[in-house]
């Protein structure tokens, strides 16, 4: 018998507003901890963030990220990793991407997400609270329900005195455990931001980021001029992301089923304004037969497109298809 778990993940990540009864004190701890670490607040003055990072593929690969931040609607970011290079810029309601490859590697998406770890709405639902010791220090660990998508729970551990977040752990795919760790906090303006950020998947470190510098710096207007051929996407306040309407299951390959082979195929694709899909690219492989089955199935997917107000807009998403046998 086959079981397919299909998970759509927006490239730029979202966190949902969580409602319901909660511990008021614990709720305030989480809100304060995130606000304290969130250097990307709407009223933040311009700054430049430089990060050295290492991602784990078949071998470790080093890279560098530079972010010049003017505001939520005006910023420029450049990422270099070995031969890969990508520049993103946001100017008003337009987001531009210029890269020297057909898709963004999944480790780069994870790197960007971990840098923005403290961005979250103020409403949280804390289910449980416990005390733990991490690296010799006592931490308060809170079980937060919902966090990254509906029905999911994460555990956020923070210092009860400084309210610095030390880790966040959650379950991603059916058998995948993810953990982000933050350490060596330093002061920047009215915030405290970690100098070291790490992502672990099933206990293996896959992303390590180190803040080389975080300084006040103006954003030069010339950086926001997109180069010819850059990918253009519209962004807007309160944007509603694409929602799948029709998702035909991939066929579990017979050879994989007979040999009880399981795996995860990760794909990036574009959802057009009419809800159809294009630019389907394999970015994380399982087996050849599973990858082929996934790519063939996704061509027939149909979405309610992303919306800016009443206008449908083009958007990019990642889809993970997990092949599991029970």
Task: Give a verbal description of the structure.
The protein has 326 residues and is mainly beta. The chain has 2 domains: 9-224, Lipoprotein localisation LolA/LolB/LppX (outer membrane lipoprotein receptor (LolB), chain A); 236-325, TolA/TonB C-terminal domain (2-Layer Sandwich), CATH 3.30.2420. It is 12% helix and 51% strand. The model is unreliable at 1-21 (pLDDT under 50).
Features:
single chain, 326 residues, mainly beta, outer membrane lipoprotein receptor (LolB), chain A, TolA/TonB C-terminal domain, 2 domains, 13-stranded antiparallel sheet, four-stranded antiparallel sheet, 4 helices, 21 strands, 12% helix
Helix content: 10-25%
Q: In percent, how much strand structure appears in the residues?
A: over 45%
Known CATH architecture of the largest domain: Clam
DSSP strand count: 21
Helix/strand/pairing category: mainly beta
Secondary structure blueprint with pairings:
Blueprint: E1 2-10, H1 24-37, E2 47-56, E3 60-71, E4 74-81, E5 84-91, E6 94-99, H2 106-115, E7 126-134, E8 137-145, E9 153-158, E10 165-171, E11 177-188, E12 191-201, E13 204-216, E14 231-234, E15 243-246, H3 254-258, E16 263-271, E17 277-284, H4 288-298, E18 302-304, E19 306-308, E20 311-313, E21 315-325
Compact overview of the structure:
The chain contains 4 helices and 21 strands.
């Amino acid at each position: 018998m086959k079981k397919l778990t299909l998970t759509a993940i927006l490239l730029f990540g979202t966190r949902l507003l969580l409602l319901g009864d909660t511990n008021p004190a614990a709720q305030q701890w989480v809100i304060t901890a995130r606000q304290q670490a969130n250097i990307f607040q709407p009223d933040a003055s311009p700054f430049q963030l430089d990060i050295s990072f290492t991602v784990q593929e078949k071998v470790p690969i080093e890279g560098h990220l530079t972010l010049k931040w003017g505001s939520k609607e005006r910023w420029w970011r450049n990422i270099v990793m070995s031969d890969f290079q990508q520049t993103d810029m946001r100017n008003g309601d337009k987001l531009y991407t210029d890269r020297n490859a057909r898709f963004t590697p999944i480790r780069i998406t994870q790197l960007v997400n971990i840098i923005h770890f403290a961005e979250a709405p103020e409403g949280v639902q804390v289910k449980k609270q416990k005390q733990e010791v991490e690296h010799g220090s006592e931490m308060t660990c809170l079980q937060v329900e919902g966090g990254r998508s509906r029905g999911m729970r994460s555990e956020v551990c923070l210092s009860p005195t400084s309210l610095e977040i030390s880790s966040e752990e959650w379950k991603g795919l059916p058998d995948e455990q993810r953990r982000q760790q933050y350490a060596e906090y330093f002061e920047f303006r009215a915030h405290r931001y970690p100098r070291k950020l790490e992502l672990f998947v099933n206990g293996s470190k896959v992303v390590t980021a180190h803040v080389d510098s975080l300084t006040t710096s103006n954003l030069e207007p010339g950086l926001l001029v997109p180069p010819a051929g850059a990918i253009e996407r519209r962004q807007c306040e309160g944007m509603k992301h694409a929602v799948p309407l029709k998702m035909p299951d991939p066929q579990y390959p017979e050879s994989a089923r007979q040999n009880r082979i399981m795996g995860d195929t990760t794909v990036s694709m574009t959802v057009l304004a009419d809800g159809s899909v294009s630019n389907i690219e394999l970015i994380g492989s399982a087996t050849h037969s599973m990858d082929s089955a996934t790519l063939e199935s996704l061509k027939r997917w149909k979405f309610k497109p992303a919306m800016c107000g009443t206008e449908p807009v083009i958007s990019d998403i990642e889809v993970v298809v997990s092949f599991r046998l029970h």
